[in-house]
């Protein structure tokens, strides 16, 4: 097996109120020293393909529980949806559906990880009050609303034509992280403390012998030997024939902008789920607004099914969708009008969705030691920790105890194919 050096992922710029995060040393990734000389028993070798939140959480919990882990990422860590998502967390919003137990376990894991990793400082973890608000776009270009028209719990910075506010999440049930910072902080911890190795390269196939996994082969011919492989490839799952022949994961392209208001201290920690009526009429939209403790305000929406390009770096936003989000920002608050707020990012990402809208988590039928974790749609950041913890248990112990994975078993698609 060709030994591959550990590669650091790029630093990210951090605005606003986190001056200690501006130091490059904070995100400097170093390989830990060699494991203990105690080689009895040998740690299980696992390759994780995919440097998004699902892959990183899986690598973190595998390595923390004693596995020898190599993480393979084609481009850069958190370069796709895990770096461009909103980072919203909800305890009970999935109740009544198949993801309820996964979401609840993961919300609680986020809380404990924030305590362990100083998440409030290192990646912007904080509880939120979450509101549902109706906004009708004004025909004028500016945002304004008479204070006499304000009702209910609308925060003062939301000074546009907002109506019908309703609290839909408290600080006990909703929270947030900065998703890119969360993913990179978790990987930094896994590499520094638990010996995870990061390889930048394009995984091409799972190497098998007699129906068992023996490693992963990269596009350039390198082979990373392993007893187990976890494919956490998001919407790129179809790249591997062992997955593409079993199920379909399609992509939803979601747009977002990141603004930095001049008066960031005026923006309170209230997440907004909008029913937005455009000035020109037509179907209302449902954008979301997430202020961040970094001083940024993240706004997302304008989603539609889209083809998945081969390279995540090829995903570019549609200008009309970005302009629509800027109009949303201006309608919500005078603090978010261009000129009063700097536009830090105009971006798009592709969310992975399964055929039945349920995540796919488990061992691939017919291939011992090959596992998949994908299809989390818009809840990938929320469900990353519990997915990673459950996958680590499944790989190392043969079953997961943190959450029952039977509902997410990829074998459900194999059963459907036989009918």
From TrEMBL:
Keywords attached to this entry: Oxidoreductase
Pfam families, A to Z: DAO
MF annotations from Gene Ontology: oxidoreductase activity
SUPFAM superfamilies tied to this protein: FAD/NAD(P)-binding domain
Gene source species: Solanum pinnatisectum
Tagged with keyword Oxidoreductase: yes
Protein name: FAD dependent oxidoreductase domain-containing protein
Keyword flag Oxidoreductase: yes
Region Disordered, annotated ranges: 137-175
GO CC annotation terms, alphabetical: cytoplasm
Residue stretches making up the FAD dependent oxidoreductase domain: 45-394
Transmembrane segments: none
Residue spans of biased composition, Low complexity class: 138-148
């Amino acid at each position: 097996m060709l030994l591959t050096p550990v590669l650091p992922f790029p630093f990210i710029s951090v605005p606003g109120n986190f001056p200690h995060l501006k130091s490059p040393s904070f995100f400097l990734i170093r390989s830990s020293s060699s494991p203990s000389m105690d080689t009895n028993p040998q740690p299980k070798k696992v390759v994780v393909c995919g440097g998004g939140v699902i892959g990183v959480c899986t690598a973190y919990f595998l390595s923390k529980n004693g596995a020898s882990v190599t993480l393979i990422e084609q481009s850069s860590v958190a370069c796709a949806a895990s770096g461009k998502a909103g980072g919203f967390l909800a305890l009970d919003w999935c109740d009544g559906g198949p993801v309820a137990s996964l979401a609840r376990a993961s919300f609680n894991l986020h809380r404990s990880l924030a305590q362990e990793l100083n998440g409030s400082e290192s990646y912007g973890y904080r509880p939120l009050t979450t509101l549902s608000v109706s906004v009708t776009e004004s025909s004028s270009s500016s945002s304004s609303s008479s204070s006499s028209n304000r009702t209910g719990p609308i925060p003062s910075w939301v000074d546009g034509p907002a109506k019908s506010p309703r609290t839909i999440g408290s600080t006990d049930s909703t929270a947030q992280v900065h998703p890119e910072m969360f993913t990179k902080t978790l990987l930094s911890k896994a590499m520094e403390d638990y010996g995870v190795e990061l390889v930048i390269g394009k995984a091409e196939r799972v190497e098998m012998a007699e129906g068992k996994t023996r490693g992963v082969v990269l596009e350039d011919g390198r082979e990373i030997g392993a007893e187990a492989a976890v494919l956490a490839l998001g919407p790129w799952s179809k790249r591997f024939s062992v997955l593409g022949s079993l199920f379909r994961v399609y992509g939803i392209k979601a747009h977002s902008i990141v603004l930095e208001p001049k008066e960031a201290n005026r923006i309170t920690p209230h997440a907004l789920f909008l029913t937005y009526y455009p000035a020109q009429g037509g179907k209302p939209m449902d954008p979301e607004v997430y202020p961040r403790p970094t001083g940024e305000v993240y706004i997302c929406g304008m989603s539609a099914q889209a083809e998945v390009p081969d390279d995540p770096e090829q995903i570019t936003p549609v200008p009309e969708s970005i302009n629509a989000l800027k109009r949303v920002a201006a309608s919500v608050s005078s603090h978010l009008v261009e000129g009063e707020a700097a536009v830090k990012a105009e971006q798009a990402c592709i969310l992975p969705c399964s055929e039945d809208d349920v995540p796919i988590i488990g061992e691939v039928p017919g291939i011992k030691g090959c596992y998949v974790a994908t299809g989390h749609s818009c809840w990938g950041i929320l469900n990353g920790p519990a997915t990673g913890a459950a996958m680590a248990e499944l790989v190392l112990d043969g079953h997961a105890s943190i959450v029952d994975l039977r509902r997410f078993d990829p074998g459900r698609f194999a059963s459907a194919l036989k009918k």
